[in-house]
Amino acid sequence: MTGKATVRPDPWRWAAVALSALCGVAACASAGAQAPLALDRTIPLAGVKGRIDHLAVDVAGQRLFVAELGNGSVEAIDLRSGKSLGRITGLAEPQGLAYLADRDELAVANGGDGTVRFYKAADLAPAGMVRVGDDADNLRIDTRSGRLVVGYGDGALATIDPASRKVVSELKLPGHPEGFRLDGPKAFVNVPDAGAIVAGDIDQGRVTATWKADHRWNFPMALDGNGALVTVYRLPARLAVMADGAVRGDVSTCGDADDVFVDGRRQRFYVVCGSGDVEVRSSTPPYASLGRAKTRSGARTGLFVPEQDRLFVAARAAGSAEAAILVFKPID
């Protein structure tokens, strides 16, 4: 999730060294349980090298978009056939993606040059650009207005009007924003550089609350749909559930997580981890582990699409195994 402009340590290197000390006996034992996820199919990403960052989906058009950060590219995949529809190349560390359904456009946040670039989703032709600042990272869509919100730099969320290609407001933060989620005008943001979780109002451009992070390197975040915030830490590897700043649960999970999703129908969390696992946990107290599905080392990003009832996990190339999207079907 980090770009060229702001160099940060890879937490998993350090977490791997300390794993035996940080992983409790019960937690490590539960890691062997089979998760209620079945590998449905594997979609190859031909010729893709290096890290893969975030994904976006066009549900109606059944297209998946993949930020191939280490390859400097973004790929469009036809989910019906599993074939590539084309690739945008020459990008400077593409990280965050957002599909704008009302415009049939794809937005790409690039960490290397601090831009958000727009492309026509039909043919991936360039359609515009906004320069926001160093390390443009995660992208979210404000569903009230269709505007984009991007995290970037040493600490800000910028709101972009896709029609005018202009930044219309900013929310200043105490450090670089990693995972964040929107709920109306409210923004909830992981700020690991500041050891904090921050709540803010993107309409008013002000921070409304700051909570001290209980652990280090809080990267992925989700909202459970019932007023609770889900944060996953990398050191130690923990999943925490909180509401209004009060922690409801704090449990162990897999290491080097960069995405977490909520399956509301089944009341589950899916934690996507670079340790080579997806952990499934109950989203109700005491947040019991339901097992882990094996993926591939470094496969720490993904996307759960409720409309298709599938979890997509991005697996980087390793040895003789080419890069791929691993498609998992939840098992009831």
UniProtKB/TrEMBL annotation:
<dbReference type="InterPro" id="IPR011044">
    <property type="entry name" value="Quino_amine_DH_bsu"/>
</dbReference>
<keyword id="KW-0732">Signal</keyword>
<dbReference type="InterPro" id="IPR051200">
    <property type="entry name" value="Host-pathogen_enzymatic-act"/>
</dbReference>
<protein>
    <recommendedName>
        <fullName>Gluconolactonase</fullName>
    </recommendedName>
</protein>
<feature type="signal peptide">
    <location>
        <begin position="1"/>
        <end position="29"/>
    </location>
</feature>
<dbReference type="InterPro" id="IPR015943">
    <property type="entry name" value="WD40/YVTN_repeat-like_dom_sf"/>
</dbReference>
